[in-house]
Structure formats: structure tokens, C-alpha cells
Write a structure and sequence with these properties.
Layout: H1 2-10, H2 21-37, E1 40-45, E2 48-52, H3 59-74, E3 80-82, H4 86-96, E4 101-103, H5 109-116
Parallel strand pairs: 3-4
Antiparallel strand pairs: 1-2
């Protein structure tokens, strides 16, 4: 710590932050939970990820379970968007906020595209 303190004194733009174990534990929990639920996932940030749930029979039940586990562990709500690709999943998540879930079915995609271009 002495090394970092001396650097922070020498360079005014360097700022030291205390390590917060609780935050680290929550992030580890989130990543571990996500990695156990899907063969592939892409972490976007410490609280956002895309999961490939191809082949999962009921992704809506999975989403509900994830949201409950996140709330039980962190007391934070979560929103989930379900769709056939990343862009649509992102749009579905926007529709799901705050604290909900929304699924864009394959049959709805063409209608959505038409709405965006009107």
C-alpha cells in the first residue's frame, strides 16, 4: 500500500479507492450464476450480461428464477429481455425496465421492424 500511496501523492490525478469486499462478492455471485445457466455468456458490465439460452425449453421461467436469485442475494431488482438475438434482447430489456421481464417472440419481430420504420 505504501507504493500506491506514494504514487497518489506524486501524481494529483491518481486517486486510491478502498477495496469493498461486499461489492466484489456480489459481482462474483452474478458471474457465477450466469455462467452456470448458459453455455455462452457475454458480460457487458458488472451487472449486465447476454446469455445464449438456445435449447432451453422455458427461458421465461429461467429469467424469473434469475431475477429472484439476484434479488434474494443483493436486494436489487433486475430486468430481463428475451429475444432471438442481442439487439432484440436489448430492446426487450428496455421494455422490461424497471424490475420486469419481456420476451419478443419470433412472430413479433417483423411487426417491430415495421413500427420502427413508420
Amino acid at each position: 500500500m505504501i507504493f500506491f500511496t506514494s504514487i497518489a501523492k506524486k501524481y494529483k490525478y491518481v486517486e486510491l479507492f478502498q477495496y469493498i469486499m461486499t461489492t466484489y462478492s456480489v459481482i462474483c455471485f452474478f458471474i457465477q450464476m450466469v455462467s452456470n445457466l448458459a453455455l455462452w455468456f457475454q458480460a457487458v458490465s458488472c451487472d449486465e450480461a447476454f446469455l445464449d439460452v438456445t435449447g432451453i425449453e422455458d427461458p421465461e421461467t429461467l429469467a424469473s428464477t434469475m431475477r429472484k436469485e439476484i434479488f434474494d442475494m443483493t436486494r436489487c431488482t433486475a430486468s430481463v429481455g428475451i429475444a432471438e438475438n442481442l439487439l432484440l434482447a436489448r430492446l426487450a430489456t428496455r421494455k422490461a425496465k424497471p424490475d420486469g421481464q419481456y420476451r419478443i417472440a419470433t412472430e413479433e419481430v417483423q411487426k417491430l421492424v415495421i413500427l420502427f420504420y413508420k
